[in-house]
Amino acid sequence: MTKINIDKEKCIGCGTCVAMFPEIFELGDDGKSKAISDDYTGAGYDKDTIEQACPTGAISIEE
Ligand code: SF4
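^ thats the input. predicted complex w/ iron/sulfur cluster below
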């Protein structure tokens, strides 16, 4: 099963993932990104595009 993981130690809360993939990410109360959906393919995105969008490499996807 697909799972999107965010390394909270690496996330700097830049908001890039939220801006690029608003169906998938939002910023939490801690100022860090969190995944609100794992269905990125349904939203029209692919694994590499999402992982590479993060400037700190905080996003990893298990397929
Ligand atoms: S793009 Fe990366 S560093 Fe920026 S908010 Fe998203 S997970 Fe955090």
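The pocket of iron/sulfur cluster is lined by residues 6, 11-17, 33, 54, 56, 58-59 (CB under 6 Å).
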